[in-house]
Amino acid sequence: MLARRDAGRETARLGLAIAKKHVRRAVDRNRIKRLVRESFRRQRDSLKGLDIVVLARPGIEKADNPTLFASLQQHWQRLQKRASHPEHTL
């Protein structure tokens, strides 16, 4: 996951990089994208001013939905903590 601050923006933005190289089947890529988008929608208000890109790593398609969702929650929380401290770089 990559992130950077955009001080002039009130809302968070999300980008997805789910490469065919890492996730072969389209059905798996689409499932991952749906989960990431839904998780992001639930956290959007707490991620104000961030531009976020989610990158897929090899083997992600083997994880079930609850595992992916829990992992995303941990990533959002980590970003919230870093974003709340201006001296930290994202």
Structural overview:
- This protein is of the alpha+beta class and 90 residues long.
- The chain has one domain (2-73): Ribosomal Protein S5, domain 2, CATH 3.30.230.
- It is 42% helix and 17% strand.
- It has 2 helices and 3 strands; from the N terminus they run E-E-H-E-H.
- The protein has helices spanning 26-43, 65-84, and strands at 2-5, 13-17, 50-55.
- The protein has a 3-stranded mixed sheet with strand order 1-3-2, covered by helices on one side.
- Strand 2 (13-17), helix 1 and strand 3 (50-55) form a beta-alpha-beta unit.
- Helix 1 (26-43) crosses helix 2 (65-84).
- It is elongated, with a radius of gyration of 13 Å.
- The termini are close together.
- The mean pLDDT is 90.
Short summary:
The protein is of the alpha+beta class. The chain has a single domain (2-73), classed as Ribosomal Protein S5, domain 2 (2-Layer Sandwich).
Tag the structure with descriptive keywords.
90 residues, alpha+beta, Ribosomal Protein S5, domain 2, three-stranded mixed beta sheet, 2 helices, 17% strand, elongated
- Chain oligomer state: single chain
Q: List the domain count as a whole number.
A: 1
The overall pLDDT, averaged over residues, is: 90
Radius of gyration, taken over Cα atoms and rounded to an integer in Å: 13 Å
Describe the secondary-structure layout.
Blueprint: E1 2-5, E2 13-17, H1 26-43, E3 50-55, H2 65-84
Parallel strand pairs: 2-3
Antiparallel strand pairs: 1-3
